[in-house]
Amino acid sequence: MPAHHGREAPPTFDLEICDEDWDGRHLDGEEYWRVSFRDVDLTDARLTGCTFTDCSFNRVRFNASLHSGTAFVNCTFRHCSFFDTRFESCKLIGATFERCTFPAMIVEGGDWSFLAMVGADLRGTSFTDVRMREADLRDVRADEASLRGVDLSGAAVSGASFVRVDLRGSDLTALDPRIVDLREARITWEQAVDLAKGLGLDVVPE
Fold it and tell me: Do 50 and 73 contact (CB within 8 A), yes or no?
């Protein structure tokens, strides 16, 4: 089990931003600390090199937004929408997601370690070359998603569904077929050997 599954955002904030329309806005290098965002529309926004620390996002619409080199450290997301959202080389270390939606979300590169996405619906999403060490992914439904080159070492995945998921190149040491649904998942021969060894099988050449 991970030692850390994301931290709750602070109960009080230094600033609250509510009911704002930031549709299409470009944020470059901005920094936010202990800020509460509520009912903010970030549709089609572009965030480059921004930093959000100990912030809370409640009912924020991230639809079709692009985040490049941006960090969300120890942030909490509740009831947020990430339809067609793209993250490139971003950090979401210690982030917590609760009752959010992620259809068609794309993540390329970056560090999402220690985050919590318990029970999230990640069907059809794409994660490539992302670090997700010790992430809490219990009961996640990621059927037909793409998780290529993802570091899942130490992740909590009991009850998760990875049916028909492309897992090639990913670290699967935390995926126990006895507690995770891996039917029709796509893996390499080397990964198959690792899974077999994880089950205690003695894999030998013919």
Answer: no
pTM: 0.88
**Per-position b or e across 6-33, b if 16+ CB within 10 A of its CB:** bbebeeebeeebeeeebeeeebeeeebe
Degrees to nearest 5, angle at CA 88 with 83 and 89:
140
Supply 158's token pair. Answer: 């009991």
**How many other C-beta atoms lie within 10 A of the C-beta of residue 202?**
6
Nearest residue to 123 via CA among 159, 162, 151, 153: 162
Report angle CA 163, 81, 95 to the nearest 5 degrees. Answer: 80
Which is nearest to 180 in space by CA: 193, 189, 167? 167
Q: Which amino acid is at 8?
A: E
- Looking up tokens 């130490």 gives 154
pLDDT in tens, 68-116: 999 999 999 999 999 999 999 999 999 999 999 999 999 999 999 999 9
pLDDT band at 204; cut points 50, 70, 90: low
And the tokens for 125? 């999403």
